[in-house]
Amino acid sequence: MRSWIQREFLYRRRVYGVLFVAPAMLFFLVFSLYPTLNGFYLSLTEYTLLKPPVFVGFENYTKLAGNDQFQNGVKVTLWFLLGTTVPKWILSLALAMLFLAPFRGREFFKTLYFTPTLLSAVVVSLVWKLLLDPNGVISALAKPITRDPDTLWLSDRILTPISLIFVDDWAGIPFFMIIWIAGLVGIPRVFYEAALIDGTTRWQAFLHVTLPLLRPTILFVVVISTINSFQSFALQYVMTRGGPSDLTTTIALLVYNYGFNYFRMGQAAAMSVFMFFVIILITLIYIRSVRAEETSYT
Amino acid sequence: MSQVSVKRFTLPAILVLILLAATVSGCVAIPESQPTEVEDAGPEPVTVVYWGHNFTPRVELDEKYIAEFMELNPHITVEYEAIPTDFDQKLRTALAAGTGPDLFAQWNGDIGTFYAQGAIAPVAFEAIGYDSQQAFMDLYVAPENTLQGAMFDGKLYGIPNELSIYGCYVNNRLFEEAGLDPDTDFPATWEEMLVVAEKLTKRDDEGRLVQRGFDFSWSNSVWMFLEYGAMVRQLGGSELNLLTPEAEKAMQYWVDWEANGLGGPAYFEGQMSGFIAEELAIECDMGSWARPGVLEAGIDYTVKSVPIWENAVNQNHFDIYAYFHMVNSRSEPAVQEAAWQLAEYLDSHPADYLAHTGLLQARVEVVESETFQNIPFLDVFLDQMTTSMYSPRIARFTEVADVLARVRDRIIVEGMDLKESMAIGQEEIDSILSETR
Q1: ipTM value greater than 0.95
Q2: B409, B416, B432: best mutation site toward chain A, by most A Cβ within 10 Å?
């Protein structure tokens, strides 16, 4: 009797569990899994939007190998990735540590510095596009250094990619600063006190206490910032449209151009799939490396 | 007891209400709305979904004429939607999903791809009351030019609801400040434009460019294609063939323009903005539609024809472009017919559209109207249309336009040799066009 009641209870719990999870699963299936699988399928077709897709096998992938624009897109994306991840990690962590220390007006400055995170990427891009105009404020402020009356921040081959990286870092650092702060606050003070008793310097405490205990936060910051950088679109679309000379055409922008402007949805899907696997690969490498370090400590 | 009394009163009350309702409805009913034998034998009800751009003055007129059209054709219901933003993307996506509109107004840049993909249907002339295509074309001024943008294999695939061409807007004040007369000193050729623009260009004490004489549209590759293509065709070449002296001359002109500090991609903010801010003395990237904005800015202006080369072999100014009413080939035949009827009804009031929206349809009747005659400089735009061409009606027009912009940028931004950059561009264009065949 007792076991029957237990079985009935477990059965009901499972049924209710499934029912509770079902809406979220349905949402995931319809809005995540289906589009992803459909993207895979489209990458194997020639699809102009205006006619039904025609299956072409892996032709779109082989075309990518010889596509100069795609290769340029990969190069641009990787440079952008480098410029918008490493500085973000370091500077946002430095700022988080700065804002953890007590000083007058700390909360005010923290809030002020967090403000860019509240703006949409499009707004950020439009504002910076105006600021970086040859006749804009930045040109005027930088004139003593550049000695150029019309600095071409968004049309020079060297300055344009750097300008975009700077804007992305400016907008992204405050968000990661908050994440670091959350991670840092979670480290018990007792570890630092023990380290102090052992005679460690502040730098040693940072290396051997802070960083190891921040590992889950590091993983989050690294993975999310990498994915964001890979998928960067609004900044390039609004500020430069990928120019000049495709120097800021990231893969995400190229996917948009191929899909919606060039009517080459099959090739656009192949590029997306490529990007999908690269992101997965990089994420897995990060997770593995962090876990390996965790194991070495235990 | 109470239930019985309720039932006793309810039944007569319902009967009285029914009788009353029948009497009232009989009194107020419009005889035409009642089903009759004549209606039963009439055409099947049809619904036409129509998408247009959200240009407020035109939307108001569209709504007025759509209501009139539905009154005249009670069997046709029009579902009209003025798309607020991203019209191109929404239209392409909807056509892909099979949920596209039956009738839409779209510019000619996409028409080559739409035709190549079989997405649009030819105009059904009989359905709109014309014996032949020629009879319909005769409604237009210089139809061999003005309607060419929707012509494929001798068949017309669209009815223009806006025909346009760029003209050069001249800021009279800036001309006079430079000691120039807008009427007599405006350059008729591209070669003269260099000299005149230099006189109108101003730099401040620090060397900052504060006023440009003239500048091209650099920011959007499609416009660059149109302007560059038109300049190449003036010389008798084709911008799809970049490895020609004509194409090289036109590209060199653009490159020199930037190199000589007269303007360039870094300064071009978009159509109108420089001219409205009076930082640009001559703006040749605006059609007749720009007049209200220029007037609102309080600028004393003149409009002149876009220059041509000294040794031009034809009088092609910047390209003609148009928004055509096109019909979705996937729609049912009866819907297609109704869609063309609606398009023709909307486009058969050109004087009203010109008066209230400034949009020109170049029909003979509107050109002869008082409205046309009373709008300054409209004749300049129309004159250019009678001798100019459309940009090539090729599939993947936008992609080819982007190639051309890259050719330019490689030379200007990366310092690549002009011929080398053009050779790379030619390869890319050939590859794109070979895939469309």
Answers
A1: no
A2: B409
